[in-house]
Amino acid sequence: xxxxxxxxxxxxxxxxxxxxxxxxxxxxxxxxxxxxxxxxxxxxxxxxxxxxxxxxxxxxxxxxxxxxxxxxxxxxxxxxxxxxxxxxxxxxxxxxxxxxxxxxxxxxxxxxxxxxxxxxxxxxxxxxxxxxxxxxxxxxxxxxxxxxxxxxxxxxxxxxxxxxxxxxxxxxxxxxxxxxxxxxxxxxxxxxxxxxxxxxxxxxxxxxxxxxxxxxxxxxxxxxxxxxxxxxxxxxxxxxxxxxxxxxxxxxxxxxxxxxxxxxxxxxxxxxxxxxxxxxxxxxxxxxxxxxxxxxxxxxxxxxxxxxxxxxxxxxxxxxxxxxxxxxxxxxxxxxxxxxxxxxxxxxxxxxxxxxxxxxxxxxxxxxxxxxxxxxxxxxxxxxxxxxxx
Length: 390
Ligand code: GLU
Prior knowledge:
Elements (H helix, E strand, L loop, with lengths): L1 H15 L10 E6 L1 H4 L9 H16 L3 E6 L2 H9 L8 H24 L5 E6 L1 H5 L1 H16 L3 E6 L13 H11 L4 E6 L20 E2 L4 H6 L12 H13 L3 E6 L5 H6 L4 E4 L5 H12 L4 E5 L1 H8 L9 E6 L6 E5 L5 E6 L4 H7 L7 H5 L13 E3 L3
Helix pairs in contact: 4-5, 8-10
Bound molecules: glutamic acid.
The site of glutamic acid (GLU) has 15 residues, from helix 4 and strand 4.
């Protein structure tokens, strides 16, 4: 009975908050589950289906949206090539399977996107790449650059080196981290279910699909159950976890049935699915995080020109920095102070303190000569900065 009550509460809220429309999103992360890409019985690629998904991606791209793909399937493809047994694999076996399968997976994505004049760029990340700030900045910069260059990042967990204690293990949560990291405004989880039901649908004929979740409550979590299909790691539980990561980070999420032709176009045509809404947007959410939850490790004192530039929305360049305080590392939060010493903002710094001292007051063109390595032109990028008045 609890589930029936939950549905009516939800329907009421959903009435107040209509589901978003696909064409309002500018940067979309699409997570593709293993069971959609790989046929469970033969371990073979479902090519025709993938071609249709690639058509959908090309359509989003041609209307100007940035698209990122988080693709599972490395282990599923590799295990059949290596003749590994069905069922849960030992860690070293799944790593070996991923090593074999990832090559094939990357080639297939490059092919199907290439056929549509899209360039694929493979990124393999580990848990630490998304959770440690200094590495997070690197992964985010690479993804951002690929998107600037109109390529489609195709991302998976680097399963061959990730060990059990420090890996995601499921691409639902990984995709949510990638989406927030890339400031995507939408995450689409294509799965072998149509969305979140009031109870696991396989066992409950009365289970109803929930169309809109304005907030992930304990009641919603209780509906998730624990089931996963044979090939996919994540069941509904990891999808709800992904929903929490995405919506806290300012990204809307939708779980939709991927077992249909043109699964993304179908969402635009109002196919049944479950929307998880965020009240924020990715940039605001990150700025809130910078402003509130990180202890500053130092300060950059800037001249009046730089103070004016950042007030007008620009990044902070080394040229405008007059003095450095503190012993911070790249990725740490530092305070930005004006010539009178007043705090005018905070941000994640792109250089360690030692390097920052050397490039302070200098033109970004000289960074390579000064540090002996190429670095970012900005000492704090505007996306990583929150101003006192924000
Ligand atoms: N990273 C795994 C793979 O590519 C998939 C994890 C998942 O199924 O969520 O095989």
